[in-house]
Amino acid sequence: GPSQATLYYSVHQTPMGSTDHWVEVDISNLTTGAYVEGNVFVRNDNATQTFYRADFNVADGGEVEFYKVVNGTHTSTGSLVTGLGFVGTTKTLRLEVVGNTLMAYLDGVEVLSWTDTVSPITTGNYVGIGQYRTTSPTAYLDNFSAGDWSSAPTLVEINPVGSSSASTSDTAQLTVPHAITDYIIEYRTTSGPGAWLLFSDGI
């Protein structure tokens, strides 16, 4: 069920298998008249309290903002988007980190991305959720989920079109993993020239 928190702290966190991963949570009970936010964080090093976080808060009509936290000091990256709405709704906030790039999604739509080009955080495998408030009420956080990015796709090599070993219906597939849906690239030869096909397999 929903978790309630006071002030800023981690509500829940869990270790992942790699430093490229994603975290997601439903955030509700954000109201006007108080500064309230729910957030998700990635690549946390518990020993040093160093991580990236994404906030969804009530500022500017509903805002998503990235923070970089180094040794417990929280600093805005300056990357934010506003006017996303919040009153009377439940929003699903998702944060992905791949390499040095962060991507934030609200209700399945990418709303913000940022690449850390100055001393990026490269270690830490914990993800989690938290919240901050200056006064009542608190944000509700529910339906926490997290996962690792799949390993890099494997190179698939097939016979060139027109080679003596290509049959009239050869196919080869390579899956490009994505946190929301997998994209499948398929090279197919039929009785005519080969063709590349791209389609999704997921949500």
Structure, described:
With 203 residues, the chain is mainly β. The chain is built from no helices and 15 strands. The protein has strands at residues 3-4, 9-15, 21-28, 36-45, 50-57, 63-70, 73-81, 91-98, 101-106, 109-115, 126-133, 140-148, 171-176, 181-188, 195-202. A six-stranded antiparallel beta sheet has the order 1-12-3-8-9-10, with no helix packed on it. The protein is globular, with a radius of gyration of 21 Å. The relative contact order is 0.23. Mean pLDDT is 76; it is low at 1-8, 151-169 and 199-203.
The strands making up the biggest β-sheet line up spatially as: 1-12-3-8-9-10
How are helices and strands ordered from N to C?
EEEEEEEEEEEEEEE
In total, the number of strands is: 15
Alpha plus pi helix count: 0
Our estimate of the beta-strand percent is over 45%
- Quickly give the structural class: mainly beta
Q: What global shape is seen?
A: globular
The quaternary organization reads as: single chain
Any low-confidence stretches, pLDDT <50, length ≥5?
1-8, 151-169, 199-203
CA-to-CA gap between the ends? 24 Å
Largest sheet: number of strands, sense, barrel closure: 6 strands, antiparallel
**Rg calculated over all Cα atoms:** 21 Å
Average pLDDT score: 76
Fraction in helix: under 10%
